[in-house]
Amino acid sequence: GHDMSLMRAPAHFWIARTPEHILGVLSGHFGGIVDNQRSYRTRGLWVSTAVRRNGIARALMNAATAQAKKE
Asked: What's the average model confidence in pLDDT over 8-23?
């Protein structure tokens, strides 16, 4: 019952980092058609516990939202 054609959609990855450390990551891809509209699926949001509550997750989600709108 799964649409495996979605696995062929290119994935995008966003990384928040300093030169020394990875602070957070997020991935996303086209998620299929839901209620006759294109959807975008994000997966694997992670932010280091040392830097949480500093807007990193929001920045990563904003990047994914911008990509979804572009697609």
From this structure: 94
Question: Looking at residue 39, what is its pLDDT?
Answer: 87
**Phi/psi at 50 (nearest 5 deg)?**
-70, -20
Q: Which residues pair with 42 in a beta bridge?
A: 28
What's the pLDDT band for 1 if we cut at 50, 70, 90? low
- The rounded distance, in Å, linking the Cα atoms of 42 and 9 is 13
Contacts for 67 with CB less than 8 Å, ≥ 6 apart: 12, 28, 40
Residue type present at position 1: G
